[in-house]
Structures are given as structure tokens and as C-alpha cells.
């Protein structure tokens, strides 16, 4: 680990000021991705801006048909939130099978979404539910936020503050985990909004989260597991490694989509 300065602001304004003043400064919340990178000397920030002391970045609130989750809300809090369990049980379920108990007690939703790891779970919920990412500067639609492997629409110095999820009519999530690492091989989040729009988001299989348009059309016509059973995800561009070929991950997308729809009911 390289040397760095350490700051712990108590307000969003102070955190943004620190991040904007130094292009090599990095925010840290739960540290589940950044700390391992620092230990392996894969990242060399000049300073770390610890967000854990900013109370306004924490918590879950419901406002009508919207669930607002603060960026520093931990996975275990998403899992156990009465508001989320009632309004979006699929999101609570996702949090409950994310990583292990240690990760769930340290990691945060905002950190996961901002990092946009291809194998992360939350990006598929954000995209699948058509959520809005709220920063200190603006509001970004999910379809515009994720831009590829570890890449988002966040600008230098911009801070993710919260994520606002529309409450769906129904939603479900299923994933296949690598039996050794437990990272996602392929996951699918399906949702039917109260306005009738169907969204299907895939994580883990490719270099970034993406929507599966053919499955969306099929489920719009017939919301049932069988509606996606014969839809084949193209393997071109999907991840391929020692753990699974692109063709295997493409097959998993269909299998997980069926399970997700069944989970949603």
C-alpha cells in the first residue's frame, strides 16, 4: 500500500470540495473494492476521502411510489429494511445473497454502483428497475449511467448521493455464482413497472450490465418463465475465462431469466 492523506468530512459539501480540489483523491465508503486494490498497489490515490461520517448519505426512505436509498446504506441494511422488503422484495433478496456476511456488513450500495464491477449485483437492479442515480450535481437515468466495465457517467469530483427506485408491480432476481469465488457468472433482474413497462437487466455475463430487449418484448406479451425459455442470448462480446466460456454465460442468461420471472411471480 502506498502512502496517502486521509480526510473524514461530515457533510456532502466538504466531501465534494476535497474531491474537486485533488484529481487523484478517491472517495471511500465500505472499502470492499478499494481497500484490496490499495493493498495490492493497484491504485495510488493521493488522498482518501472517508464518507462514513456523512449522515445525510445514509438510510432508506419511501416517498409515495419511490424508494430512496442513501449511497452509504450498507447491504445488510438494504436486506433488512422494512420499506424495501414491502415495496421491492427482489432488492432485499438481492442484498441477502450478495457476497458474504462480512461484505454485507461493510459494503454500501453507492460504492457498488459507482464502482460498476461487471460482477456486481446492484447495477442490474438499478437498470432493471429504471432507477435514478442522484449526485451532488444532477439526476442521472439508469440507462445513461452505466457505460462499460468500471465506467459510469460520474464526472471527476462528482459524488453519488442516493439512488431512487420506482416501486414496481413485480420484480425478481436470480444469479449463478462461481462456486469458488462466489462472484456472479450471470445474473438477471426482471421488473414490470406499474406503468406496464418490462425491463430485463443482465449482470456478470458481459463487461458491464446491459438490457435484454428480446426478453423484454417477450415478457411484455406474456409474463411467464416460458416466455423467455427459448430466447438465446448472443454470446458475442460476453465474458470468457477459465471459469466459463461466453457460450456458457449466454446459456446462463436464459436460465437465470426464467428463474427471475418465476421468483417475481
Automatic annotation (TrEMBL):
The keyword Metal-binding does not apply. Residues 1-170 form the FAD-binding PCMH-type domain. SMART domains: CO_deh_flav_C (SM01092). Keywords: FAD, Flavoprotein, Oxidoreductase. It comes from the Bacteria. Pfam families: CO_deh_flav_C, FAD_binding_5. PANTHER family: XANTHINE DEHYDROGENASE SUBUNIT C-RELATED (PTHR42659). This is Xanthine dehydrogenase family protein subunit M. It comes from Craurococcus roseus.
Amino acid at each position: 500500500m502506498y502512502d496517502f492523506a486521509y480526510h473524514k468530512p461530515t457533510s456532502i459539501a466538504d466531501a465534494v470540495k476535497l474531491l474537486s480540489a485533488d484529481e487523484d483523491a478517491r472517495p471511500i465508503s465500505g472499502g470492499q473494492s478499494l481497500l484490496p486494490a490499495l493493498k495490492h498497489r493497484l491504485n495510488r490515490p493521493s488522498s482518501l476521502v472517508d464518507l462514513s461520517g456523512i449522515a445525510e448519505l445514509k438510510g432508506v426512505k419511501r416517498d409515495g411510489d419511490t424508494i430512496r436509498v442513501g449511497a452509504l446504506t450498507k447491504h445488510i441494511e438494504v436486506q433488512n429494511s422494512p420499506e424495501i422488503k414491502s415495496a421491492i422484495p427482489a432488492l432485499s433478496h438481492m442484498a441477502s445473497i450478495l457476497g458474504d456476511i462480512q461484505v454485507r456488513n461493510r459494503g454500501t450500495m453507492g460504492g457498488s454502483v459507482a464502482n460498476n464491477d461487471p460482477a456486481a449485483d446492484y447495477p442490474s437492479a438499478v437498470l432493471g428497475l429504471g432507477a435514478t442515480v442522484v449526485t451532488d450535481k444532477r439526476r442521472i437515468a439508469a440507462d445513461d449511467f452505466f457505460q462499460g466495465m468500471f465506467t459510469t457517467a460520474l464526472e471527476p469530483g462528482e459524488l453519488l448521493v442516493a439512488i431512487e427506485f420506482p416501486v414496481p408491480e413485480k420484480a425478481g432476481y436470480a444469479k449463478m455464482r462461481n462456486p469458488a469465488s462466489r462472484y456472479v457468472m450471470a445474473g438477471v433482474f426482471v421488473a414490470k413497472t406499474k406503468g406496464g413497462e418490462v425491463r430485463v437487466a443482465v449482470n456478470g455475463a458481459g463487461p458491464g450490465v446491459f438490457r435484454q430487449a428480446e426478453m423484454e418484448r417477450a415478457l411484455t406479451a406474456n409474463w411467464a418463465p416460458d416466455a423467455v425459455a427459448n430466447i438465446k442470448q448472443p454470446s458475442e462480446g460476453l465474458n470468457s475465462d477459465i471459469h466459463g466460456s461466453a457460450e456458457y454465460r449466454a446459456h446462463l442468461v436464459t436460465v437465470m431469466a426464467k428463474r427471475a420471472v418465476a421468483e417475481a411471480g
